[in-house]
Amino acid sequence: MFKNKKVIIFDMDGTLIDSVGIWNEIDVELIKKIGGILDDVNIQIQRDSTLKKLKGSENLYLEYCRFLKEKYKSDMEAEEILKLRYEISKYYMEKVVDYKPNAEKLLKRLKELGFNLAIGTTTRKANIEMYKTTNKNIINKAKLDDYFDIIITNEDVKNRKPDPEVHSRILEFYNIKPEEVLIVEDSLIGVEAAKNAGISVVTIYDKYSASEIEEISKISEYQFKDFEEMINYVNKELSN
C-alpha cells in the first residue's frame, strides 16, 4: 500500500474527524429555529442530494438555505438562514468536533516514518481555522499545523469533489506524481475524486457512508474499519 509513496492526503469530514453526524444535528436545530416542522426525511440525504443538484452555484450554501426556506415555509430570508446556520455550527466546530478514535496516533506514526501529510477537503476555511485555533479536542491531540504541510479547502478550488482539482493542487505543491501519493477517504464522492486524480485511495469506515459501502469497496484499494486497524497495517507493512 505504501510502496513508493511520499505523501498521504487525508480528507477531513467523516475521515479524520467525526463531523457528518454533527452537521445533521446542526441542520435539525436550524430547521427548528427557522420555524420548520421536521418530517420523516433523512436530513443527511436531503442535504447531500440538494447540494449535488446545486453543484456549480456561485454560493452553494446560500442556495441550500434558500431550499430550506422554501421547503419549510420559513419567514426568514435565505441570507438570514445562512447566517444562523453559521452561528449554530460555530459552537459545534469549536466544542464538539473531535478526531475519530486513534486518528491522531496514525498521524504521529506516519510522520515518524517520514511521510509528508496534506489535507484535501470540501470543509470551509473558516471551520479549519476554528480547528486550528479554538477547538481544544483537536489542538490537544494533534495540532493541524504541526502535522500537515498544506490544507486545501472548499474556497481554494473552483470545482468540488469528485472533481480532482483539490488533489491536483496538492500534487503541484509537492511537485510529485500521482503514483507517489496515497489518499485516505471515507465517502464515495471522495474515492471518486481520488480515482479521477489517478491516485491510489484507501478508506476508513464511516457509518454515514454505509449506504455507499459496496461502491466504495469497488473503487478503493484497501478498506479499514477504523484507525486502529490501519495503524496495525502500517506497522506490519513498514516495520524493518
List key phrases describing it.
alpha/beta; 240 residues; 2 domains; Rossmann fold; 10% strand; six-stranded parallel sheet
In short:
The protein is an alpha/beta fold and 240 residues long.
Commentary on this structure:
- The structure is a single chain.
- The protein is 51% helix and 10% strand.
- It is an alpha/beta fold.
- It has two domains: 7-17 and 98-238, HAD superfamily/HAD-like (Rossmann fold), CATH 3.40.50; 21-95.
- The longest helix has 19 residues, at 78-96.
- The radius of gyration is 18 Å and the shape is globular.
- The mean pLDDT is 94.
Task: Draw up the topology in text.
Layout (H helix, E strand, L loop, with lengths): L6 E4 L9 H14 L9 H11 L6 H12 L6 H19 L6 H10 L3 E5 L4 H9 L2 H6 L2 H4 L2 E3 L12 H10 L6 E5 L2 H9 L3 E5 L8 H7 L2 E3 L2 H12 L2
Helix pairs in contact: 1-4, 3-4, 5-12, 10-11
Averaged pLDDT, please? 94
**Helix/strand/pairing class, anyone?**
alpha/beta
Shape, please?
globular
- Note the gap between the termini: 16 Å
Say how many strands there are. 6
- Low confidence ranges: none
Task: Report the CATH architecture of the largest domain.
Answer: 3-Layer(aba) Sandwich
CATH-defined fold name of the largest domain: Rossmann fold
What is the share of helical residues?
40-55%
| Overall number of structural domains | 2
Summarize the biggest pleated sheet. 6 strands, parallel
- CATH top-level class of the largest domain: Alpha Beta
CATH superfamily of the largest domain: HAD superfamily/HAD-like
